[in-house]
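Data deposition worksheet. Section B asks for the primary sequence of the deposited chain exactly as it was used as input, without tags or linkers unless they were present during the calculation. Section C holds the resulting structure in token form. Section D is free text for depositor observations; keep each observation to a single sentence. Incomplete worksheets are returned to the depositor.
Section A, Depositor: J.P.
Section B:
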Amino acid sequence: MSHKVHPKIFRVRGIEDWLSQGFYGKKPLNNIKEDFIIRSFLTKKLKESSVDRIEIERYLNKTNVVVYSARPGIIIGRGGEGIEKLRLELLKEIFKKNKLSLVEWKDLEKKLKIEVKEVSNSWTSSVLVGQWIAQRIEKRMPFRKTMKQALEKVLANKEVKGVKIQVSGRLDGTQIARSEWIERGRLPRQTIRADIDYSLSEARCTYGTIGIKVWIYKGDKFDE
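Section C:
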């Protein structure tokens, strides 16, 4: 039987890095659980805000959450109201799930910071491309037309050397599930130095869930 492994895990500390990193102290289990709560809450809350990834950086007296989004204005809000409201909701979620004491709550309130950074080009991000395809499929757009449109928009960028898009499930509501894919350009998936951006997204339709996989190849990376 085949063994499925996420492509990023082979490239960590080579050309990729962990999304959570920093100083975890004497209670790493609590901090890892807190990271999971932060990531789960923000992913669900910012579903419509075109979030590419969420990075968590832990320091001795600060926990910095960096949200990369193609639409940062929606998250920040007018005068920073949106991000402050989001921070308070996140603190309440951690307080409820982790069952913190009042002392721990005040300590976390001082330490937790949320920063929003803009993704300059959404068509070079596999996550954002997958989200765009999922939104179109949920609106009952033809999946083949949507895949071709996404492929053309991604390949219009000079840094992209190859792309593959695959959709699986009860496509267009058919009785039997199947997989269909479209590929163009180079995609050396067995080369560790290949900079391949991979993501898995899901479209929630009335007739079932459609899985969307996107691979974007941006050339090779070498150690300096």
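Section D:
The beta strands are 20-22, 51-58, 63-69, 112-118, 162-169, 178-185, 194-205, 208-220.
The chain has a mean pLDDT of 88.
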